[in-house]
Amino acid sequence: MNNLKATKEGYVEGILQAGRENSRVVVIEGDVSRSIGSSSFGEEFPERFFNLGVSEQDMLGEAAGLALEGFIPFVGTYGVFVAGRAWDQIRTDICYMNLDVRIGGAHGGISVGPDGATHQALEDIALMRVLPNMKVLVPADSNQTKASVLASLNTGGPVFIRFGRDPVPQVYGMEEPVRIGRGNLLEEGNDVTLVACGVMVSISLEASSILRKKGISAGVIDMVSVKPIDRELLLEQAGSTGAVVVAEDHQISGGLFGAVAEVLALELPVPVASIAVPDSFGTSGSPFELRDRFGLTSTAIAENAERLLG
Amino acid sequence: MMDNTQLLELSMRIRMDVLEMIRAAGSGHPGGSFSAVEILVELYWNVMNVRPGEPRWNGRDKFILSKGHACPALYSVLARRGYFDPSELSTFRKLGSRLQGHPNMLNLQGLDASTGSLGHGLSIACGLAHGMRLNKNNNRVYCLLGDGELQEGSVWEAAMTASHYNLQHLTAIVDRNRVQLDGNVSEVMEIEPLVDKWLAFGWDVIVAEGHSFPSLEKAFEHCRETPYPSVIIANTVKGKGVSFMEGTCKWHGRCPDEEEYDTALREIREGLS
Lengths: 310, 273
Hints:
The structure holds 2 protein chains of 2 kinds.
Chain A: E1 4-6, H1 7-21, E2 25-29, H2 33-36, H3 39-44, E3 49-51, H4 56-68, E4 72-78, H5 79-85, H6 87-95, E5 102-106, H7 124-129, E6 135-137, H8 142-152, E7 159-162, E8 167-169, E9 184-187, E10 192-196, H9 200-213, E11 218-222, E12 225-227, H10 231-241, E13 244-251, H11 256-267, E14 272-277, H12 287-293, H13 298-309
Parallel strand pairs in A: 2-3, 2-4, 4-5, 5-7, 6-7, 10-11, 10-13, 13-14
Antiparallel strand pairs in A: 1-8, 6-12, 9-11
Helix pairs in contact in A: 1-8, 4-6, 9-13, 10-11
Chain B: H1 4-25, H2 30-35, H3 37-47, E1 62-65, H4 71-81, H5 121-134, E2 141-146, H6 153-164, E3 170-176, E4 179-180, E5 183-184, H7 185-188, H8 194-200, E6 204-209, H9 213-225, E7 230-235, H10 258-270
Parallel strand pairs in B: 1-2, 2-3, 3-7, 6-7
Antiparallel strand pairs in B: 4-5
Helix pairs in contact in B: 1-3, 1-4, 1-10, 3-4, 3-9, 5-6
């Protein structure tokens, strides 16, 4: 659980395995394949690898065309640009036609650290989640990222998979599958439920230990499938604990907190707290420093849980 | 192949359909539909290998209407070509219709993509051409763009891709009617020198008269032969066929009233120009 690995490595392992098992898998890149590591797909399958240069809009339109011809394109580029710059293509060319395109959003959240605000994808979950037909996966470690890539092949329509650059703790073993629409209850709890995605999953597990020492029993849900969200698991846990803290490295609006709050507000209005970037742009710094700066820490999660329990 | 007289009669029929559809819907885009009629007729009757009774046939050539607002003309062409009964044209833009205000391929099988947001079609067409190449399929992909649409930067991203990967089975057609929603293209945002632009992006360029079947036929023939991605700059007239709609941005997206409808119908029947 303590060995560190960047989730982007799981993405690359996933597309390589997918490419070996399925000849319809193609990869579209936009001049960042050496950064993501997906250039290795191009070395193994040159005829199924298209580098389109710095042109996110064209990449997504091209992916739509390839999907219409029966291929399964994985489009990989930095999340901030793919979700933002090419949003209209994702909406109209891919989601509206409900095409089998998989989008790899690299450098998710503040994982890209020193590159600063322009390169930190803090709005991508919101931008993708709002689109009809889109599914959004935010894996917690590299094993789960690989499993997310493989799980995306078992579903129809578009899928967005978010991953990051900085090494993060492994939460999962090699063979644990991702089921789209399902979260994982990593720890049972009686007093409060921590719901997290991405890097905040391992940090929520830390928060749960902090709380345990204080005599508070915190459950931890890894909501890898942000959309469709695991409504059943969420309602079951929120119902039994009566309080929820949501943690994500994303803007406070529209991301996992939004997804959780939408379910709870309509079906089970329990007290909810949010650990997220507070409606502000990022800045340069190491991912660790930035999580501290924005309060994306186990201490902050524990404090919010205690506050909810009053 | 249809002869010139038959093609002209068809074009007249299609303009009547378009006018009627827009009147029945109460909205739509007559100007850019009328400018594209002959291009679409030439494609669907003389150029493309298609099976209207089997719209998703694997061996077909594909067509992307990147200027999706011209869909009344495309719907009429598909209906008259035998994809569906022309009586359905009267449902255009109405609740529950397969004939959406902009093309939705999930509703209507004769469509090869959903379009409407400008600047998207050429990238989709590149993806299709790439996919066909991987599938070892020698069919062709055609993509119709508006001239105002060329102001979208994404068009030129796709233009680079097509020449970089030498997608020689791809032909773009620019409906060069010189008018966009807000006014003349040259005044809103000049796109000239257009031939030079496409040449500079590595395309084979041919200029055609977009309302002349012999001219279009020659142009498409050239495109089939060339070893490069090709573009036909088709000089057309916005609102072609109705005197008061021709060459003006006023009829980009407007529905005629009763009197205008009667005059327009008469002019189309009489074969203006």
